[in-house]
Input
Amino acid sequence: MEGIRVLVIDDEEAQRGLIAGFFKKQGLEVAAAEGGSQGLERLQKEPFDLVLVDYRMPGISGLEVLREVKRVNPEIPVIVMTAYGTIETAVQAMKEGAYDYLTKPVDLDDLWHRIERARERQWLLAENRELKERLQERYHFDQIIGESGKMQEVLALVHRVSNSGATVLIRGESGTGKELIAKAIHYNSPRAEGPFIKVNCAALPENLLESELFGHEKGAFTGAVSSRIGRFEAADKGTIFLDEIGDLSPSLQVKLLRVLQEREFERLGSNRTIKVDVRIIAATNRDLEAVVRGGRFREDLYYRLNVVPISIPPLRERREDLPPLMDHFLTKLSLENRKTITGLTREARDALMRYEYPGNVRELENILERAVVLARSETIGLSDLPISLQEPKAGEETEKSLPSLLEGIERRMIVEALQKSQGVQTKAAELLGISERMLRYKLKKYGI
Ligand SMILES: Nc1ncnc2c1ncn2[C@@H]1O[C@H](COP(=O)(O)OP(=O)(O)OP(=O)(O)O)[C@@H](O)[C@H]1O
Ligand SMILES: [Mg+2]
Output
């Protein structure tokens, strides 16, 4: 088992030393961590093929480590060690996706036996490491921020669908992260080593798009001076991402239907049939059902594409994601722009929290990028944000419902009162004519 890297996480030094020493003798590469947080830190930095973790540790528990490993890379087998006689904990660990469990004191022969079994089942493939490494830094789920319940559901679905080869249709308004999700599916799938090819179906006129998708032979049309392979061929053994699928012309819809059904097509100007092994992920920001009803999109194609629908909710419907997204982008953007931005002023944060984001996550990212570039100090202030965010627009609430209108007013009044009272809550409550307790409740409610 050369080249297999194991991480042992246990707070008991003697136990850790015993297991690590045993593994080394068996020819494995071993790293040891004395607690959950150190363990997770190492996991973020280095790839491992197997994790052995103690269930009971102060601070971050073995179960939390397990969850995090599963979240970041579900492919890594985790063996959990539990104290003798605590079968419930073992059951729970298995439920949460542990590969196996051991009771303490650990029987080294038994442990070795289980590891060999894991290897036989091809769980431990050293060749996969490079791949794991690449995945870890790139489209791993930790790059996708989504703490809200709605996004958690989306991410759980992404996890489940990644391992299958099922066709996926991703729905969502512009800028909600459709492409990000498509990549996450590909790079977490068995096809991860194959290509991820993106085609925007709205970007090209019909005849160009056709040759782009299916390729053409020399002389197939004026200007086809040499033959060229299409995106479907390029995506063989990988994934093709068909963006803006709702804009596909009727004749291309027919051709795509055939690819979906038979996985075959011909290049333009050729009658040789080409077979490909591709996974198809499509995306649209349109109401595709309405387009079908309107007769502009084939119903049979719709059903073929809509095998697993994934809908990404607009950002304004998951405001809990705003604070972690802001932190994520600020860190990323300050690095990219070589600036040290430590945070936002309260006013700037409030303005960002209250905005509606018609352009969703991309708009937030753009706003913050501009702010990072503009900021003259380490904190981003209100004046670094676009004017439209700096003051709530009059009349913006015209098409909203009465309760949300009232909430908007309430929120704004609270923010104003806090500004006037320089953050002193007793004073702000007094200004607003409500109790301090009520104010605290509302602050929490609106995430101020
Ligand atoms: N949940 C998220 N966590 C982190 N970054 C995100 C998230 N969602 C979107 N982004 C970022 O926002 C930007 C827009 O995302 P993406 O291009 O995937 O959106 P889209 O839905 O394909 O947009 P469009 O419909 O305009 O093509 C990207 O830079 C992406 O990395
Ligand atoms: Mg996109």
